[in-house]
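Deliverable D5.2: sample structural annotation.
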Amino acid sequence: MKKTFEQKLNSPFYKYSKRIFELIALNIIFCVVSLLSLFVLFFPSLVSLHKIIYNYISDNDDNVYKTFFMEIKNQWSFSWRLEILCISIMLIVGTLFYFDIYYIKHVAYNWIGWFALVFLVSISIVFLSIYFNLMLFNDYYKDDTFFVMIKKAAVITLRKKLLTFLNLVIFISFVIVLYLIPFLIPFVSFTFFIYILQAINKKTFTTIAREECERSLLPENLFLPVVKEDEEK
């Protein structure tokens, strides 16, 4: 019996083919928006991609292109803080990397330079781990201020070491593949990495979000003010 048109639209093949196409299209849009804004909208767009793919994981994929731009607006309060913080860290750490490598190559090839290099790599891994958990935590729970969310992301990083390590392995794998095949960057870089990240971390962060909601309803917390980023002046 031939499938009806509605049955074809509801089939898993159509659903995931459509999703793959949208992920590729969103990756292209993300790259174009980031380049045209001179990377001012790089992190706000990443926050938006996280929200869209969170909706995918929750089986809600309504008008993803509209959602991309709406989420940049809706989460601007969180995004501009993230932008300033991440750009500042990248500039500082990048400058230290440059001077350390310059020291090793042109000044002295000794243990001081290599110790500093190992220290900078370790710091970068810690920042990257907290960043991944912060972005995921933001998708599941929003009743905290920006800096409280960073603290909680740091705690998640310490407590979920195996999952954090897996996130880093996936990230490094993507970096290696895209370094070897750079023409894939506009098509399957950010969106597919975030999709895998969301899928792997869904169960853990669903549990964390439920625990946070339960904690917020404890008697000692009921009369404490809840400050959301969007309500700050």
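Annotation notes: The chain has a mean pLDDT of 88. Residues 65 and 130 are 28 Å apart (CA to CA).
The annotation will be released with the project's public dataset once the embargo ends.
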